[in-house]
Amino acid sequence: MSTAAPRRAAVLGHPVAHSLSPTLHRAAYAALGLDGWRYDAVDVTEAELATFVHGLDASWAGLSLTMPLKQTVIPLLDHVEPLAEVVGAVNTVLFQGRTLIGANTDVHGLVAALGEGLDGAQVRTAAVLGAGATAASTLAALAQLGCASPVVYVRALARAGGLMRAAHRMGVTPVYRTLDAAVGEIGRADAVVSTLPPFAADAIAAQVTHAEGVLLDVAYDPRPTALSVAWAAAGGAVVGGERMLLHQAAEQVRLMTGRAAPLAAMSAALEDKLTT
Q: Which residues are catalytic?
């Protein structure tokens, strides 16, 4: 029997067919007994987003947002939570009556996923590969874990303006270097987070020979990534990008349903999906 009135939620993005969010949220609803709840994946472009959001009725509990909508949604919201505001990215929209609230659960996902590999160790030094929206969330996560001055490696410094502005809003002070400098330096960091797209870190992976800390590669297709394989072979600990996905989705479930997320059930469903 359902324990709550039927509600709707969905992940929006373009493209979105590859998203694992439906697997995670549906597993949570089943484990929580929310039989009347429904979670879908809806392909929505930036140009279509306003019309879609404004057309939703009172049955909606929330939205998950993937690229390229994490910034586009912000002007449509009535309130943006402080963390999402400083990061400059909203990946979660909550519906409270007719009020739309923007939140960021990516930071929570990053902190929790890195925590699995750190096993209580403090992050004193860190490296971030990439300068997109996930990199901004990574800066916030690393600051929570104790490192407010990570080194950020980017393809071109001229394209890192958005990340630099986000860092300024957060009060963190990264050092910026070009991506080609990463190979000789990242092996000494306590924590390394690659926010690069799939395969974009393969050239770096081919040159990794020493690794002391924990690597989180947010890319999880293919699994394991070339960087993860090389990092483990060089002596470092690895956390798969799917763990970040799991933990950020668990926080979304908590925010949308008001119930503690059934992490074990969600993790099992995710692993089953990724191995079939």
A: 70
User: What is the pTM assigned to this prediction?
Assistant: 0.95
Burial of 1 (0-12, 13-18, 19+ CB in 10 A): exposed
Positive or negative, the CA dihedral 82, 142, 148, 69 is negative
Quote the CA–CA distance of 99 and 28 in Å, as a whole number: 25
| Sign (positive or negative) of CA dihedral 196, 199, 249, 124 | negative
Structure confidence by residue, pLDDT tens digits, 77-98: 999 999 999 999 999 999 999 9
Q: What is d(CA 218, CA 258) in angstroms, rounded to the nearest whole number?
A: 27
Strands of 191-194's sheet, edge to edge?
Answer: 175-178, 151-154, 126-129, 191-194, 214-217, 237-240
Supply 86's token pair: 């400083």
Give, as one character, the DSSP assignment of residue 125: S
C-alpha–C-alpha distance, residues 73 and 86, integer Å: 15
Closest by CA to 19, choosing from 53, 65, 87, is 65
Identify which of 12, 7, 134, 136 has the alpha carbon closest to the alpha carbon of residue 64.
12
Q: Which residue has the tokens 């990570």?
A: 150
